[in-house]
């Protein structure tokens, strides 16, 4: 195991979390300059396994409801007046 600040070079394999997905990347070459995305993508190979099509996608929760949303929900849940 190396230190987090260790240099990365050609042939190194990196594993990291990106959102809820685990990515596995093999560095092919070191870039000489900061350039456009297609140039950067040519410097690594993505080894991340393809997700199983039978596995359901992760559930994405929306933003926290506002006070107005909660009031509207509570209003819709009240029984009708007789």
From TrEMBL:
Tell me the GO molecular function terms: RNA binding
Q: Which domain of life is it from?
A: Bacteria
Stretches with biased composition (Pro residues) = 50-60
Q: Where is the composition biased (Basic and acidic residues)?
A: 71-82
Where does the record place Basic residues bias? 61-70
According to the record, the residues making up region (Disordered) are 46-82
The record, for InterPro entries, names: S4_RNA-bd_sf (IPR036986)
Output this protein's name. RNA-binding S4
Question: Which organism is this protein's natural source?
Answer: Dinoroseobacter shibae (strain DSM 16493 / NCIMB 14021 / DFL 12)
**What lineage is on file?**
Bacteria, Pseudomonadati, Pseudomonadota, Alphaproteobacteria, Rhodobacterales
